Automatic annotation (TrEMBL):
Belongs to the acetyltransferase family. RimI subfamily. Pfam families: Acetyltransf_1. NCBIfam families: rimI. Transmembrane segments: none annotated. SUPFAM superfamilies: Acyl-CoA N-acyltransferases (Nat). Its EC number is 2.3.1.267. The lineage of its organism: Bacteria, Pseudomonadati, Pseudomonadota, Gammaproteobacteria, Litorivivens. Keywords: Acyltransferase, Cytoplasm, Transferase. It comes from the Bacteria. This is Ribosomal-protein-alanine N-acetyltransferase.
């Protein structure tokens, strides 16, 4: 398994992965802009891209803008693995915080972020458009320390095994 940084050559691929991941999608223009200006990564397993993520970075702050795993590859730990890799790399390179926003209804993503030690720090009312209305965003923060994300992920896994 390996993580690779993406350029705009990956546009079709990331769009296909996101389209297969869930109901909400970035536009082609959003992905193109992010591939050209932000940090975009993919996790490759057996020569297949199994997770993609986009971050923006300003000074010592990262923002997770998007992450997606194709439907057939979900619940195999790929999103966790990609996030742990990226957040540890950022920590090593002096990035101190990672923020993210997530739809209040997105239970899988919220569980993923909390399993990695992200803390809920606020909410933005009516932030996202949804069919027939708006939905709140929850705002999460992780303070990055080298090795911390990996450690948090391992602790969560061990706790879950104890509970099983
Ligand atoms: C959210 C998403 C990226 C998770 O990807 P994934 O590779 O399936 O997640 P992982 O297998 O790494 O899961 C890690 C942990 O997250 C949580 N989790 C992930 N999917 C879950 C689900 N469907 N239900 C409950 N918890 C879930 C669990 O705690 C899981 O650990 P466990 O499997 O040991 O219990 C994926 O569901 C997805 O692409 N969704 C659509 C796009 C999206 O919503 N992106 C987030 C935008 S903010």
């Amino acid at each position: 398994m390996k993580v690779e940084r993406l350029t705009d050559e990956a546009l079709e691929r990331v769009q296909a992965i996101e389209a297969d991941a869930g109901p909400y999608r970035w536009s082609r223009a959003d992905w193109l802009s992010s591939l050209q200006s932000d940090d975009c990564f993919e996790l490759i397993c057996d020569e297949e891209a199994v997770a993609v993520a986009a971050f923006s970075v300003v000074c010592d702050e990262a923002n997770l803008l998007n992450i997606a795993v194709p439907n057939h590859a979900q619940r195999r730990g790929y999103a966790r693995r990609l996030l742990v890799h990226c957040l540890d790399e950022y920590a090593v390179n002096g990035i101190k915080h990672c923020f993210l926003e997530v739809r209040r209804s997105n239970a899988p993503a919220i569980a993923l972020y909390e399993s990695l030690g992200f803390s809920l720090i606020g909410e933005r009312k009516n932030y996202y458009p949804v069919k027939g209305g708006r939905e709140d965003a929850l705002v999460y923060l992780s303070r990055l320390q080298r090795g911390e994300q990996e450690r948090a992920a391992k602790i969560t896994t061990a706790e879950e095994k104890d509970d099983a």
